[in-house]
Design goal:
The complex is a heterodimer.
Chain A: H1 2-21, H2 23-54, E1 59-69, E2 72-80, H3 82-105, H4 123-143, H5 147-165, H6 172-203, H7 208-213, H8 215-219, H9 230-245, H10 254-257, H11 263-272, H12 277-284, H13 286-289, H14 293-316, H15 320-340, H16 344-371, H17 389-403, H18 409-423, H19 429-455, H20 461-466, H21 489-504, H22 509-514, H23 531-538, H24 541-549, H25 553-571, H26 575-582, H27 584-591, H28 596-629, H29 633-645, H30 651-671
Helix pairs in contact in A: 1-2, 1-4, 2-3, 2-4, 3-4, 3-11, 3-16, 3-21, 4-5, 5-6, 6-9, 9-12, 9-14, 11-16, 12-16, 14-15, 14-19, 15-16, 15-18, 15-19, 16-17, 16-18, 16-21, 17-19, 17-21, 18-19, 18-23, 19-25
Chain B: H1 4-21, H2 26-42, H3 45-49, E1 59-67, E2 72-78, H4 83-99, H5 108-127, H6 131-140, H7 142-152, H8 157-185, H9 192-196, H10 202-219, H11 228-235, H12 238-263, H13 265-291, H14 296-315, H15 320-351, H16 367-380, H17 387-402, H18 404-411, H19 413-428, H20 436-439, H21 446-464, H22 467-471, H23 474-485
Helix pairs in contact in B: 1-2, 1-5, 2-4, 2-5, 4-5, 4-12, 4-15, 5-6, 5-7, 5-12, 8-10, 8-11, 10-12, 10-13, 11-14, 12-13, 12-14, 12-15, 13-14, 13-19, 14-15, 14-17, 14-19, 15-16, 15-17, 15-21, 16-19, 16-21, 17-18, 17-21
Classes of the chains: A mainly alpha, B mainly alpha.
Chain lengths: 673, 489
């Protein structure tokens, strides 16, 4: 079995190395074959492992010792339990779909580069190499049995995300976005690393099992220098890491910009897998988080803010990918709220269903983008359902699931989150519940707005073709009206395959949430946090849940959101402009995303440069060099005149003779007595 | 008695003679230098493979009387602290020879010879256990560096060399006084290991510590005696920068471990807050300064200072994670800073500019080079799976254990380091082709590929499996920490 565990991450790594280093030699087909093969092997192995884990076989063992120091042993190793097994399946399945889809999406990638750029020659192979490398990194992250490897995977997925957001490196917006993403994530990692440092310092180990075994002990301690309750300090530190990776307010600012990357990675990295790493991590650390109500409160409030305020921004976006991006932020907020409500399994459940339906939405948006020749502005779409029937159907499925309507996957997971938040006793849960409900309405609105705006109504792309103005993603399809047409099979088949779980994954809820499915992988302090136990009591099968669902508030809120979208974008398409004019200020606030980008650019980026200049000019140049060093400036002048004389070129001889001479003279002179 | 250490010192130095003999035959000089460098590296390998990791004390010891009148000995030996630096130094020498291959056309034999001499001297510093021998090597090593900057350096080289000289002068004098004082105090011995056992009162301990501090802090360099470094780097030829960053900066840090801590442990403990403060200033203050540099070499020079701040921080938190992390950081920085300066050199050879503003979109014309540069930049930002992560990670863990706030301040490097390094990469490597000069760039040739790939392998190997590096350190570091914990008053 251990060989099989190894095979899961190593097969994609092998593909990545071959496609990356020998891309030219193996050609395009070679690159996608070797990487797809790698991920397929990985998926099959994950399936076998999943079955094995279901049979009750949990593995926890080290591969090799990475480092030993100060009594700490840092190892690379695997922990294969139900939580890991689910993540492995989600990651490898979505990754495989995205790999296949990429064949179609990147088929004409050379058009995205300037003609004379050498970076375009192997860009196709490079892309496959990166997404396989990502798959490897993500698998190492979820399969880890210790904090060090977790951090390795954590940073490695960040690296690949950086490389892929900036994939089209000649575009200024792309390389701005990837730097921003990396740095904002580093702010999160800052907290994450301090959390890990505290664990190492007080638990004396970075191995999950050992640390969790000492959790109760840690909960009684205080941090020596700060006097903080130790467990809270640890959990908040770790969660700050999650806020960066899983794009929680206020560290969410990088995610919308990450849409500069090619769409397949938006689906894989910035929706289905990498951004959920934070959710996974907190669930993995449930034995720690369960012991700090302060941390859980903090989490639920952050999640609530993210859910509601990001959903609001989604309403005013006109770029099809950005709508989906903000919807992702909002959904990540839901998962975070579930964590705060101690409903870790529900968070993972939503993580899974979301991975499917959000991948569908992103890849569907990508299919639209291909059909529109890299136009992403929905104002220049409309009426596309006639031309893109398969894409339309799958996006519709994704939207229904995203809005949380039964019997689609999102309904079960999102409704469970709302119930868990409602049942939670944690301070802040009341606020979170209100935010969650409001976001349900908005979720219905923005999901169906996307569908109606892009696929229904007037065929605005005909007018757009006459405009001289082209979208920022345009690359040379000037003039002439192109009839949009359905994407090739490599694009539509993954869409269809992903739609199946987007509809049906929710039906697993019974065993997933209430069947003690996760076993020991997730720990809940049921006495202090009874939400999950209450949910379990109220659960009577999926039909019971649906029957109950349609008489409760969330269902009607989502439905009215959808109805509002229909009214505004199908029935009365003249209305949005009127509303926009009437509500200029709120719209402006939303369009500016609450001004956070401007603030960060001014305060943090500008501030750092200002501090740097200040220290450099005032500290280094004026005080240190000016006063301390060049106070003897005349000395410099004198010395320079001397030095100039000895720049004869024969100085090497002096050097050698000096060194030897010193030895000889010292020896002779000192020994002469 | 093994004479491996003597070989490591004298093969490069006398090999340089052979290279000088090549005179104007450039080709012969290059090949001879490469041969000497490779032999010099090969003789250091047994130091690692025959090293007894269970022993805390000195190994491969060579002891001969040198100047019996003053009890001065030719005494060499290495322990887990110094051994790896001899290998690193000998390895970097090979890299420097290859890097200067076609680039240096003027006085080739002398150039190659100077680097070989310097390499031998550095090995002498890391293996001397006699204070006079150490001092001679320590001071002598400055000469080839002056010459390298002075002959093959940039237009402002005299100013830079002089600034360096000014800084060093005071430190050297104070160190000499400290050495003589210790000689007298010990009843006439220059043996470092005997000095380690010397009982010294608090007041002289503090004075000794400060005398050594001035000498070593300049070399590291620590804030506020760091301003010579950016100037020296800017004026030095690429090879000079590489040796300066990869090896010379390590001498000061090594000095702390060999002199300050074991000879004056009480003063070290007493002054640790000062040292930690200076280290943190280096990490943060210098990190901000690096952010606004317009010259790539200056940026990397400031980045070096910031990274060396982690080294001194690690030493003075007095735990195993800290000290070993600092040592790992020193070796890793040897690889990464060498690679970063070589990357700048590769671009400078083509464009004759180090200004960030003159570049942009290099990836479009030099994709292979861009791959290396991004890798090394990531390593410089401390990305896991590169060597740059290991040392920083260990020091941060050690610091959090020692005092949360110190760990907190140190960890800001995660953000600052990534900010200044990747912002530079963004402006230089990425983007559209910025101007016609960038458009005409040609990608790296096989020679350049070779040295970048060698360093890339080192950076990755050490990041993925640092165990063999720390394994040899444990016994000696453990011994040192125990030694420092015992008062000498």
């Amino acid at each position: 079995m251990k060989t099989l565990y190894l095979l899961v991450p190593l097969a994609p790594l092998f593909g990545a190395i071959i496609a990356g280093l020998f891309g030219k030699a193996i050609g395009r087909a070679g690159a996608h074959i070797v990487t797809i093969l790698g991920v397929t092997i990985s998926l099959l192995a994950s399936l076998i492992i999943f079955k094995d884990v279901m049979a009750g076989n949990v593995f926890n063992g080290d591969l090799y010792t990475w480092l030993e120091s100060g009594g700490l042993k840092f190892a690379i190793g695997f922990l294969i339990d139900p939580l890991t097994a689910v993540m492995m399946l989600v990651v490898t399945f979505v990754s495989l779909m995205v790999h296949i889809y990429t064949i179609g999406y990147m088929a004409h990638d050379e058009e995205n580069w300037p003609d004379d750029s050498l970076a375009r020659t192997n860009s196709y192979q490079r892309f496959f190499s990166y997404i396989s490398l990502f798959t490897f990194s993500m698998l190492m992250l979820v399969m880890s049995n210790n904090f060090v490897q977790l951090f390795f995977g954590w940073e490695a997925v960040g690296l690949v995300s950086y490389l892929l957001i900036g994939f089209w490196s000649t575009r200024p917006t792309a390389i701005y976005a990837n730097l921003k993403a990396f740095l904002v994530n580093r702010v999160g990692d800052f907290g994450f690393l301090l959390g890990i440092g505290l664990v190492a310092a007080y638990a004396g180990s970075l191995d999950y099992a050992t640390v969790f075994g000492k959790a109760q002990q840690l909960a009684t301690m205080t941090e020596a220098t700060t006097g903080w309750p130790l467990i809270t300090a640890i959990c908040i530190g770790l969660f700050i890491g999650a806020m960066g990776k899983s794009a929680q307010f206020p560290l969410h600012v990088w995610l919308p910009d990450s849409m500069e990357g090619p769409t397949p990675i938006s689906a894989l990295i910035h929706a289905a897998t990498m951004v959920t790493a934070g959710i996974f991590m907190v669930s993995r650390m449930s034995p720690l988080f369960e012991l700090s109500d302060t941390a859980l409160s903090f989490i639920i409030v952050i999640g609530a803010i993210t859910t509601l305020f990001m959903a609001l921004v989604a309403i005013v976006q006109t770029d099809i990918k950005r709508v989906v991006a903000y919807s992702t932020l909002s959904q990540l907020g839901y998962m975070t709220m579930a964590l705060g409500a101690s409903a870790y399994s529900v968070a993972i459940f939503h993580l899974m269903t979301h991975a499917f339906f959000k991948a569908v939405l992103f890849l569907g948006a990508g299919s639209v983008i291909i059909a529109m020749h890299h136009e992403q502005d929905m104002r220049k779409m409309g009426g596309l359902r006639k031309y893109l029937p398969i894409t339309y159907a799958t996006v519709l499925i994704g939207a229904i699931a995203n809005a949380g309507l039964p019997p689609f996957a999102g309904f079960f997971s999102k409704d469970s989150i709302i119930m868990a938040v409602q049942a939670s006793q944690i301070p802040g849960a009341g606020f979170a519940y209100v935010c969650a409900l409001a976001a349900v309405f908005i979720g219905g609105l923005y999901s169906f707005r996307l569908v109606f705006f892009a696929f229904h109504g007037k065929e605005r792309f005909r007018e757009a073709a006459h405009d001289a103005h082209h979208g920022h993603d345009d690359h040379g399809h000037h003039g002439g009206t192109h009839e949009p047409h359905e994407s090739p099979k490599v694009v539509t088949v993954p869409l269809i395959l992903l739609s199946i779980p987007a509809i049906s994954a929710g039906w697993l809820i019974g065993s997933f949430l209430y069947g003690n499915w996760f076993g020991d992988a997730i720990y809940i302090n049921t006495v202090a946090h009874p939400a999950m136990a209450q949910l379990k009591e109220g659960f009577h099968g999926i039909f019971g849940m649906m029957a109950h669902g349609v008489v409760t508030l969330p269902f009607w809120l989502a439905l009215s959101g959808a109805a509002t979208a229909w009214f505004l974008y199908v029935k009365r398409p003249d209305l949005p402009a009127v509303i926009r004019a009437k509500m200029a200020l709120p719209v402006k606030i939303l369009e500016n995303k609450y001004g956070l980008d401007q603030f960060n650019e001014w305060f943090f980026a500008g501030g750092a440069r200002g501090v740097g200049h200040g220290l450099w000019k005032a500290g280094d140049q004026t005080i240190i060099d000016g006063v301390m060093v060049n106070g003897s400036a005349r000395l410099v002048g004198w010395f320079a005149s001397v030095v100039r004389l000895i720049q004869s070129g024969h100085i090497y001889q002096y050097a050698f003779s000096m060194i030897i001479g010193v030895f000889v003279l010292l020896t002779l002179w000192m020994n002469r007595a | 008695m093994s004479s491996l250490l003597s070989l490591a010192i004298w093969i490069p130095i006398f090999g340089a003679l052979v290279v000088f003999a090549a005179g104007n035959d450039k080709k012969l000089a290059r090949w001879a230098a490469l041969a000497v460098a490779i032999v010099g590296f090969l003789v250091t390998l047994p130091l690692y493979f025959n090293f007894d990791v269970t022993q805390a004390g000195m190994q491969f010891v060579e002891q001969r009387p040198w100047i019996p009148r003053f009890n001065i000995e030719y005494l060499l030996g290495v322990d887990g602290i110094s051994m790896l630096f001899i290998l690193l130094n000998s390895f970097i020498t090979i890299i420097v020879i290859i890097a200067g291959w076609e680039v240096i056309e003027d006085k080739v034999a002398q150039y190659m010879g100077a680097f070989l001499i310097m390499s031998g001297l550095m090995n002498g510093i890391f293996s001397s256990l006699d204070a006079v021998l150490f001092y001679v090597f320590f001071e002598a090593s400055l000469i080839p560096m002056y010459i390298i900057i002075g002959i093959w350096g940039g237009p402002n080289r005299v100013y830079a060399a002089f600034k360096f000289f000014l800084y060093t002068l005071l430190g050297s004098l104070l160190m000499l006084i400290a050495l003589i004082w210790l000689f007298l105090q010990s009843g006439g011995s220059f043996n470092l290991l005997e000095w380690h056992q010397l009982r010294i009162d608090m007041a002289p301990q503090i004075l000794l510590f400060l005398a050594f501090l001035v000498a070593f802090a300049v070399k590291v360099p620590m804030w506020p005696v760091h301003t010579w470094l950016p100037d020296a780097h800017v004026e030095a030829p690429t090879g000079g920068s590489v040796v300066l960053a990869a090896i010379m900066l390590k001498l000061g840090a090594y000095g702390f471990l060999r002199f300050s801590l074991p000879i004056a442990p009480d003063a070290s403990q007493y002054l640790a807050p000062l040292m930690i403060t200076l280290s943190l200033i280096a990490v943060i203050y210098i990190g901000f300064v690096a952010l606004v540099q317009a010259d790539m070499k200056k940026l990397i020079a400031y980045s070096s200072i910031s990274h060396m701040g982690f080294v001194t921080l690690g030493f003075f938190i007095f735990n195993q994670l800290g000290v070993e992390g600092a040592l790992v950081q020193m070796i890793s920085h040897g690889f990464i800073s060498a690679a970063m300066f070589l990357c700048v050199g590769v671009m400078y050879d083509r464009m004759h500019s180090r200004q960030i503003a003159d570049y942009g979109g290099v990836v479009n014309t030099m994709p292979k080079f861009a791959g290396f540069m991004v890798l090394f930049a990531m390593a410089n930002s401390g990305l896991p799976a590169t060597s740059g992560f290991v040392g920083e990670f260990m020091v941060i863990l050690g610091a959090v254990k020692y005092n949360f706030w110190i760990g907190f301040l140190a960890a800001t490097t995660l953000i600052l380091g990534a900010a200044y390094t990747l912002w530079m990469v963004k402006r230089v490597i990425f983007g559209a082709v910025a101007n016609s000069h960038v458009a005409e760039l040609s990608d790296i040739n096989s020679r350049e590929f070779l040295f970048l790939a060698l360093l890339a392998l080192c950076v990755l190997a050490m990041g993925l499996y640092p165990y063999p590096f720390t394994d040899v350190m444990h016994a000696s570091v453990d011994n040192l920490l125990k030694h420092v914990a015992v008062s000498k008053l």
